[in-house]
Design brief:
By secondary structure, the protein is mostly helical. 77% of the residues lie in helices and 0% in strands. The protein has 10 helices and no strands. Helix 3 crosses helix 9 and helix 6 (121-134) crosses helix 7 (136-143). The protein is elongated. It starts with a helix and ends with a helix.
């Protein structure tokens, strides 16, 4: 039964644990992506509806969920690429005491992501294997974003827990409005137009 399962999952006897987990993580990402895409679509529709009803301030609050869901989807795309790398070249990790330079970004970024996204068992498994291979210090450097952590800045940005700025929310709201043939004018925009008209007089 074990051999049949290996064949069905495309495994072979020489495959390392990190390679197996990486392939399983890729499958998990596909599931997570569908879930997040549905949430994004729902939040997007809510924003469009609020704008059509003239509830601009409420739409400005709701658009924050749109941004967060899009950030997660972007992060999943990056993580999927890293998982493909480890699925293909994971054996290199077993042969080196230190993480190979060509794998450092992928390994460090996946380790960091595991600390920021707990609802991903395969990713947690990858982090556990990385800890066993390279030690707790390596993992701590990535998780705590120490100097030379190797974590991709885009992954850090996409998993950021900082509150979104008003500027970023306004920008996203304007983009949604534009795509739906709506025109928005915030107080700051009106003030800027007023200043320009005053200068022309």
């Amino acid at each position: 039964m074990g051999r049949k399962l290996d064949v069905l999952l495309g495994r072979n006897g020489k495959e390392s644990k990190i390679e197996t987990l990486s392939k399983l993580a890729i499958s998990r990402i596909a599931i997570l992506r569908k879930h997040r895409e549905a949430r994004l679509c729902h939040a997007w529709s809510d924003v469009v509806q609020l704008l059509s009803l003239g509830h601009q301030e409420r739409a400005l609050l709701r658009v924050e969920l749109v941004i967060k869901e899009q950030n997660l989807l972007d992060a999943f795309c990056i993580l999927e690429c890293y998982c493909h790398i480890l699925a293909q070249r994971g054996m290199l990790m077993q042969k080196n005491v230190e993480c190979p330079e060509e794998l450092k970004e992928a390994v460090s970024s996946l380790t960091f992501a595991a600390s920021r996204y707990g609802d991903f068992p395969e990713l947690q498994g990858i982090r556990t294997v990385i800890t066993k291979i390279y030690g707790k210090e390596f993992v701590a450097r990535a998780v705590e974003l120490r100097k030379d952590s190797g974590v991709n800045p885009r992954v850090i940005e996409k998993f950021s827990t900082r509150q979104l700025s008003l500027e970023s929310r306004v920008k996203a709201l304007k983009e949604i409005a534009y795509e739906n043939g709506m025109t928005l004018c915030f107080k700051s925009d009106a003030d800027e137009v007023g200043k320009r008209r005053h200068k022309l007089r």
